[in-house]
């Protein structure tokens, strides 16, 4: 898809205070970014900082508000006009409040754009603090009309450093929001001490090892951390993050090596690891967990397809996000796969380099998934 806009070395400041910087980032037509997180985590603050940029003038903003009187868009930006649930913001952006089904709203926006009634090239969705990101993400894949008009780029989750520990304890939607994230922004880190922040970061990493974490103050974040992450693009996963599992922190168990850890109590034909650094922190028993499967042995395509199909059929509603770079028998190219709940897709990636170690790496993030069943099944798919 031809880029709509490329930006390099952009800086925005209030006086001497730098609020937004960007090294290099690209916007594609119809690109969608979803902001999720509990109420008070800083979604509107981040959105306000983003929309202050001239480059964002031809954007649409969907705000999923609860109640008859939505105030977020009024608090964030002065409006210059209002038509139904659509507000023309002072900077030229379109702000639309989601009062009904997201799919209906997206179709309506796309149709009005085709008719020339609205002019926008990218879309930012700010969800309610209670939102489950799963249905939001699925909307962009299950509806043909929506899929033709929009490209879901990423899900960005904001976490309030001061209140997150209790929110993660009490609210499953908060844990789901972390599990779905392509990027995690931690706000209000100045309100907690270093030990508390470190514990939170480790807990988040335990729940979602594939999402980079960034602390953010009053919406201050680089645009390259927000746009063009391509979290749902199969072909470019390796180009963005060729080693999204940090081998430097993993616990490796080679084929047949014995391990006394309870979760490693069976024979190992592939390697399966905990997330980084788990030996140094107390783990909360969160129902949203992640685990990793790795193996240098090639996977049998037919066996893997049958196994993943069966797993998704049984556990799909509990499988939040799953991604992998696969070493498959019968091809000299990497196979990239990913899924959201029951929706799963795969594609051929780049060829394996001549001296590159061929290894399958998969990460699964879900709600109380039976780790041993997944691991044993994947081992049986190895050649």
């Amino acid at each position: 898809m031809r880029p709509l806009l490329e930006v390099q070395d952009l800086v925005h400041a209030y006086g001497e205070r730098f609020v937004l910087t960007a090294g290099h980032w690209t916007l594609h037509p119809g690109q969608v970014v979803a902001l999720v997180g509990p109420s008070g985590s800083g979604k509107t603050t981040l959105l306000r900082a983003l929309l202050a940029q001239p480059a964002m003038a031809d954007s649409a903003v969907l705000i999923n508000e609860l109640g008859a009187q939505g105030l977020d868009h009024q608090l964030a930006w002065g409006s210059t006009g209002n038509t139904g649930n659509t507000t023309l913001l002072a900077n030229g952006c379109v702000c639309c409040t989601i009062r009904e089904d997201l799919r209906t709203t997206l179709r309506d926006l796309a149709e009005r754009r085709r008719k020339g009634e609205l002019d926008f090239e990218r879309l930012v969705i700010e969800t309610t603090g209670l939102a489950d990101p799963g249905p939001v993400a699925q909307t962009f894949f299950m509806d043909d009309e929506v899929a033709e008009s929009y490209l879901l780029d990423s899900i960005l989750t904001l976490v309030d450093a001061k209140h997150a520990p209790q929110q993660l304890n009490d609210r499953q939607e908060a844990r789901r929001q972390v599990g779905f994230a392509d990027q995690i922004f931690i706000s209000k880190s100045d309100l907690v001490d270093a030990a508390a922040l470190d514990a939170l970061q480790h807990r988040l990493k335990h729940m979602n090892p594939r999402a980079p974490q960034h602390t953010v103050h009053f919406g201050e974040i680089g645009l390259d951390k927000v746009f063009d992450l391509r979290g749902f693009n199969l072909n470019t996963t390796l180009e963005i993050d060729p080693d999204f599992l940090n081998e430097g922190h993993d616990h490796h168990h080679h084929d047949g090596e014995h391990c006394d850890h309870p979760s490693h109590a069976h024979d190992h034909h592939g390697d399966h690891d905990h997330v980084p650094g788990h030996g140094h922190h107390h783990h909360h028993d969160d129902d949203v967990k992640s685990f990793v499967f790795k193996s240098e042995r090639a996977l049998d395509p037919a066996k893997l397809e049958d196994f993943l199909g069966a797993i998704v059929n049984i556990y799909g509603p509990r499988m939040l996000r799953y991604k992998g770079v696969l070493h498959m028998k019968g091809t000299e190219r990497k196979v990239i796969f990913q899924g959201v709940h029951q929706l799963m897709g795969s594609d051929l990636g780049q060829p394996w380099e001549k001296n590159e170690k061929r290894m399958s790496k998969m990460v699964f993030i879900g709600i109380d998934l039976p780790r041993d069943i997944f691991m044993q099944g994947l081992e049986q798919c190895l050649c």
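The longest helix spans residues 301-315. Residues 1-28, 67-80, 235-281 have pLDDT under 50 and may be disordered.
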